Amino acid sequence: TAFGKSPEIAASLWQSLEHTQILQTVRPTGQRQAAGIEVELNEIESRAEEYPLTRAFCNLIGTLVESYFPANLGAGLRAPGFEPYLQFLRDTVFLRFRTRAYRRAAEKWEVAAAVLNVFYKLLRDYEPQPEDFVEQYVEMQGEEKAGYKPPGFSLMHHLLNESPMLELCLSLLEEGVTQLDTYAPFPGKEHLETAVTCCFMLLNLTLQKENLFMDLLRESHLPLIVTPLEQLLQGINPRTKKADHVVNIAR
Q1: Facing residues of 143 across strands?
Q2: Which stretch of DSSP H or E encloses residue 245?
Q3: Total Cβ atoms within 10 A of residue 16
Q4: Sign of the Cα pseudo-torsion (251, 156, 238, 186, in order)
Q5: Cα separation of 159 and 80, whole Å?
Q6: Distance CA 180, CA 184 (A)
Q7: For residues 114 and 58, is the Cβ–Cβ distance under 8 A?
Q8: SS3 assignment, position 117
Q9: What is the pLDDT of residues 141-198, one digit of tens each?
Q10: CA separation, residue 150 to residues 39, 87, 123 (Å)
């Protein structure tokens, strides 16, 4: 991933990622099964209870999004944008990382830290723009398809709703603080610290950007429902049945 720090090399690596379909972003007509790293994670790594490819992929994407980010990624092959990568990282890697088995206990937190670091970088570098709130269409094989939003927009939408992503971030903060409060060493402690820090920074960034995001959304009449994060943080914690999210964050 050190090579990916040069913008020129990063641009070339993005092209290679799309061309090789390491993450399948274009599914040929008639193909029923997924392919690429998604199959590797769900079938091979999960069975072996070891996740070296998933961690390497997250680290590569984390380096690439920091160096160079092509807005038209995948153009000509599919609706351009980062969304297929974000969906994989969020829905397949992050939302399921807790339910997978790990031969090496520390790797659970290595996976969480690697994927949360990508989310943090994407949201940190996102500034809401009026054009993000206008539906864009692209022509694909003679038909018009809705274009993808920037990844930061997508993350804001998920973090300004009672989404599985927000729920998991809040749950990780609670679990992390509880484990770190014991001051006892455990496998993956430094990666748990990184994951907890990223969750905290994601919430902080959402709070910083939400006013502009919600103002632009109101002006646009885009049919999107969001709730201020400070309101969501006052909701009931499903584990404790109390409104204690803010207390957990303050700890």
Answers
A1: 140
A2: helix 245-250
A3: 10
A4: negative
A5: 23
A6: 7
A7: yes
A8: helix
A9: 777 777 899 999 999 999 999 999 999 999 999 999 888 888 888 899 999 999 999 9
A10: 26, 12, 10
* SS3 of 143-192: EEEECCCCHHHHHHHHHCCCCHHHHHHHHHHHHHHHHHHCCCCCCCHHHH
- Residue at 238: amino acid letter: P
Among residues 155, 19, 135, 151, the alpha carbon closest in space to that of 78 is found at 19
Q: What is the per-residue pLDDT across 33-92, written as a single tens digit (0 to 9) for each? A: 778 999 999 999 999 999 999 999 999 999 999 988 888 899 888 889 999 999 999 999
Q: In whole angstroms, what is the distance from residue 148 CA to residue 80 CA?
A: 7
Asked whether 212 and 128 are in contact (CB, 8 A), the reply is yes
Structure tokens given for 69:
């980010």
Closest CA to 93 of 112, 79, 107: 112
The reported pTM is 0.93
Calpha distance 139→145 (Å, rounded):
6
Any idea how long the chain is?
A: 251
